[in-house]
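Let us work through a complete example step by step.
Step 1: write down the sequence.
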Amino acid sequence: MFTGIIQEVGTVARRGANSLTVRCFLRARPGDSVAVNGACLTVAKASRRGLLAFDVSEETWRATNLRSLRAGQPVNLEPALRAGDALGGHLVSGHVDARARILQLKRLPGGFALLKAELPRSLKRLVAPKGSVALDGVSLTVAAVRGACFEAALVPHTLSRTNLARRRAGESVNLEADLVARYVAAALGR
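Step 2: predict the structure and record it as tokens.
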């Protein structure tokens, strides 16, 4: 379980056919869970040189934007919650629902930005104004839902501490709908 509060922006060291290695300062051991751009991955190897290696399944490559990563690209990192940790964002499982295309990232006065992203039809009933989503693992509040897209305001702190400031229109982000909304929708659907 995660919160969507990014602890570090790491850098992709290499991507193999079924592996991803990230350079970072996070302290992790083999077996630990780390959200990489919002996708929960298990640490396979950790080196003293600041490298974390992850095994990546074909399903994870298919469901996320991790396959498009190249060496040198920034990735959002968050270690799994431990008992007693503060829940600063919202409950995030690290199970990516879909890739969503960024439609617009508009810079605003004061260091803010407005991010507009596509909303896949399958997730439309799980995303609501003032609700939560995670984009590339970042906990965000939905500002508006308009047809097949939604908007979220990005505050200066989020822009300075995540990879979202480097994103551009047309790029794909990992989208996870709010965990509570998912269970409410499932219960109402029965």
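Step 3: interpret the result. Helices lie at 58-63, 156-161, 179-189.
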